[in-house]
Design goal:
The chain has helices at about 5-25, 40-45, 235-245, 255; strands at about 50-60, 65-75, 80-90, 100-105, 110-115, 120-130, 135-140, 145-150, 160-165, 170-175, 180-190, 190-205, 210-220, 220-230. It has about 260 residues and is of the alpha+beta class. The longest helix has 20 residues, at about 5-25.
Amino acid sequence: MKRKLPLLLLFSLLLAGCQAEEKAPAAASPPPEPAPKTAQELLKEQPIDDTHDAFLVDTGGRLGVLLVTVELGTERGEFETAMSLSVLDPADMSRPLQTIETKTAVFHWSDVVDANFDGYQDFGYMYSMGNQPTYWNYWIWNEETGQFVSEPELGSISGPVFDAETEEIRGWARASAASDGVNTIHKWVDGELVCVRRIEVYKTEGWEGPFALVVADRVDGELTEVFRTQFPAGSEGYFEERSKWENLEYHGETNQSS
């Protein structure tokens, strides 16, 4: 009987150990990783103030929606200020895909548009604002390189309006408080942005006129004057004449009837 006691004691100890292991709590599983922030959520986190701006550009390509942040620099000129734009991929905010250094005289005026009608969105930022004329710097998305490329010719167009149906870019720069000024029509030709028609109305003398209307078309790669006429002081006939030439299919009454 005495020999059985140690065995019974050993069995009891083993049984108690197993029960203790069964009662021990299981190790806690690690918390799930937070879902990545969307581009819209990241945009809301960006500072928008006197020296900061931000907007989204949906390139429609392999990188999709990109975040562009804007910051004014400390270099202040008499009429313009240094400005830095950072292009960021919301999927990896560790560093910019691209940094663009430029200058501006105004702030908080961005424009997201397919400026070259290739199906990818581009963007512009206003750099000058007058009584009516406004001028913008534009950057065109290059899907192959994954970069935005500056298009200087767009910077020469006042208040550009992009017509995807006709693939025309129209500008209007008023010369004074009256309706004289310059209309421009640009098109992309073999990948190059060119002015294909320029219509100018200006006063030949005095505040009331007379007015001259001059049309130049792109001929053999150069803007060439193709039409000129005048209207007496007080006449508003140039409104109708100018509207005719705003249609690129119009080439003057003589040519139309021939």
